[in-house]
UniProtKB/TrEMBL annotation:
InterPro entries in UniProt: Rhomboid-like_sf, Rhomboid_2
Region forming the signal peptide: none
Keywords noted in UniProt: Membrane, Transmembrane, Transmembrane helix
Superkingdom: Bacteria
Name assigned to this protein: Rhomboid-like protein
SUPFAM superfamilies in the record: Rhomboid-like (SSF144091)
Compartments in which it is found: Membrane
Transmembrane in keyword set: yes
């Protein structure tokens, strides 16, 4: 039956990207929790888990981890699609450890650079002092890093540069037109992913199913 074959393929796709779907499962649970909070409590709750300047100065490790477990706005389905398209592909290609390394470096690096720029803006009088409590939770910096590193997975120079130009436009246009610290973070996350090229060495340009790889090796 085509239905059973389709389900097996879906399960195989999910099974080969365990980190992606475990993370997505956590985001589903935390999103459900947010929907049971009042708007006022939700804002205070998320602010305490935000990588803003106040929280970073008091407990950086905690908020760097916690901020990646919540989605501001409570819209989980779009992230389920994005995780399946980008994160799952990267994890299946790089392996869980390398994929997680890209996510971690992009998330931490983009957060520190964007918040450092915000601190400079506050001290220069460009941004208000209240910006130390700015909301900064979510998974978009890590996603930008994964989008960047996937440039090296695309075969063919034309397709690869076409993809690169597209993602540079997606992340670069907001940064050029009216930059916020979040736009800067997305740009840094993308560049961090592009800088992770050493992590892709030895990886094939096309994702392989582990069973197929084993079968080839046994011939």
């Amino acid at each position: 039956m085509w239905i059973s074959r389709g389900l097996r393929r879906v399960w195989g796709y999910v099974r080969d990207a365990p980190g992606t779907y475990l993370w997505l499962g956590v985001l589903f649970l935390t999103t459900v929790a947010l929907h049971h909070m009042s708007p006022e409590f939700e804002q205070e709750f998320l602010r305490a888990r935000s990588t803003n300047l106040r929280e970073l100065s008091s407990d950086p490790v905690r908020v760097l981890i916690a901020s990646a477990m919540w989605i501001e706005g409570g819209r989980w389905v779009p992230y389920a699609v994005l995780y399946s398209v980008f994160h799952a592909q990267a994890e299946r290609w790089l392996g869980t450890v390398r994929w997680l390394a890209v996510c971690g470096v992009a998330h931490v690096g983009a957060t520190l650079v964007s918040q450092g720029a915000l601190l400079w803006a506050i001290r220069a009088g460009v941004a208000p002092g209240s910006a130390v409590d700015a909301m900064d939770v979510g998974v978009s910096y890590a996603l930008a890093g994964v989008v960047g590193v996937l440039v090296y997975r695309i075969p063919g120079t034309a397709w690869r540069y076409g993809y690169l130009l597209a993602v540079l436009a997606v992340y670069g246009v907001p940064l050029a037109l009216g930059p916020t610290f979040t736009d800067l973070g997305h740009g840094v996350g993308l560049l961090t992913g592009l800088a992770c090229r050493p992590l892709v060495r030895g990886r094939p340009g096309k994702t392989r199913n582990p069973k197929e790889t084993a079968a080839v090796g046994s011939d």
